[in-house]
Amino acid sequence: MNFELSEDQRAIQQMVREFAQGELMPRVRDLDREERFDPWVLKRMGELGILGLCLPRKYQGGGMDYLSLGLACEELEYVDSAFREILSVHTALVGLTLMQWATLEQKERFLVPMATGAKIAAFGLTEPGAGSDVAALESRYRREGDAFLLSGDKLWISLADVADLFLVFARRSPGRDPREISAFLVERGRPGLETETLHHKLGVRAGNTGGIHMREVRVPAENLLGQEGEGFKIAMSALDNGRLTVAAGATGMARACLEASVRYAKERETFGRPIAEHQLVQQMIARMVEGYESSRLLYAWAASLKNQGKRCTRETSLAKLHACDAGFQAAADAVEIHGAYGFSDEFPVSRHLRNAKGEMIYEGTREIHLLMQAGYALGSREDRPLRCSLPPWPFPEDVEAGLA
Ligand SMILES: Cc1cc2nc3c(=O)[nH]c(=O)nc-3n(C[C@H](O)[C@H](O)[C@H](O)COP(=O)(O)OP(=O)(O)OC[C@H]3O[C@@H](n4cnc5c(N)ncnc54)[C@H](O)[C@@H]3O)c2cc1C
């Protein structure tokens, strides 16, 4: 087991850190206050190669591994969840899922513009009446000649109002049968497709979250991802890709809260000494260290299994569950350490606390991950190989093309 980062991984970490702290940090408080998503962020992330960093070089990505993706997410969320969410949705939930399930032609059509940031992708699974219970989704599709017609509403979709491409899920017949669900790639601009932005959210206010509304949207048959009826499996495998990034992001939030708290505790004095000397404050700082370091190990473990091409739904779920709890606890403790100042947005910790609640909801709520872990422990759940697995790293397509 090697805990050292490679030179390339350190370089990615450093580059994203400089971007996040140098360019995003000075803007984030205003964006959060104004509840405004700034498309400039996408442009810069595309220019820097962050959006495609772990997509194959063959498709104009950076060809980096899954741990590098986690490191980038950690650095982005050190500043704000909204910036990390971009990688979670565009790169992991859609990009990696295309690597897993798309045909060669679909990869060339969709992954190349995604890798460079020319096109931004969103993931439309959740509906007004179906979140945790994915099989209850009601969006419908029907075949008409060489096309599919899609109708339905998706809600709480990150990047909904700014994306160019949507990976959406719909069912062929009413009911709850997951084998009736299929996955489609829908480009913005198709008649019948509209999007909206949700306002007044508790957190992720510098991010875009919204709805996708489809009324008889016609997509060509070649926009079907996987086979008809494989949509539920595709959605679950996508979440397995995305959860790694949420775990890594939450780890970055825990680190941000820890560092802010250490700084503040050394400066702020009560009863004639810095609050850092009070043991109850030290206890909170120690708990942040514990949460941060253990979360880091868990997401690195999941990333390393993904690099080996192994299915690791259990480990990824555990990393997501643990890191989101640790991030939330760290943010709550950090607000406490900052006293009344933690209650304002003068310091970033209150923003982290609001954001922390979001990541305990999306990509599987806390309760869903607890149920999953109990299922693995009790033997009612096990990970079997999928028809299309996430490729190991270095990516076979890059190796074949002499690019790795
Ligand atoms: C900021 C944000 C961004 C998001 N981005 C996206 C996105 O990009 N794409 C997308 O498709 N979705 C997205 N979502 C939606 C998110 O994935 C769902 O909100 C989530 O899956 C939970 O679904 P729900 O809100 O319908 O809650 P519900 O499923 O209705 O759950 C409500 C409560 O009941 C609990 N519960 C449900 N079932 C059980 C059970 N069996 N046992 C015990 N407790 C249970 C839940 O844990 C929760 O506490 C986003 C959400 C947020 C907040």
UniProtKB/TrEMBL annotation:
Gene3D superfamilies: Acyl-CoA dehydrogenase/oxidase, N-terminal domain (1.10.540.10), Butyryl-CoA Dehydrogenase, subunit A, domain 2 (2.40.110.10), Butyryl-CoA Dehydrogenase, subunit A, domain 3 (1.20.140.10). GO terms for molecular function: acyl-CoA dehydrogenase activity; flavin adenine dinucleotide binding. InterPro entries: Acyl-CoA_DH_CS (IPR006089), Acyl-CoA_Oxase/DH_mid-dom (IPR006091), Acyl-CoA_Oxase/DH_mid-dom_sf (IPR046373), AcylCo_DH-like_C (IPR036250), AcylCo_DH/oxidase_C (IPR009075), AcylCoA_DH/ox_N (IPR013786), AcylCoA_DH/ox_N_sf (IPR037069), AcylCoA_DH/oxidase_NM_dom_sf (IPR009100). It holds the Pfam family Acyl-CoA_dh_M. Residues 229-372 form the Acyl-CoA dehydrogenase/oxidase C-terminal domain. SUPFAM superfamilies: Acyl-CoA dehydrogenase C-terminal domain-like, Acyl-CoA dehydrogenase NM domain-like. Residues 122-217 form the Acyl-CoA oxidase/dehydrogenase middle domain. Keywords: FAD, Flavoprotein, Oxidoreductase. Belongs to the acyl-CoA dehydrogenase family. PANTHER family: ACYL-COA DEHYDROGENASE, ISOVALERYL-COA DEHYDROGENASE, MITOCHONDRIAL-RELATED. This is Butyryl-CoA dehydrogenase. It comes from Limnochorda pilosa.
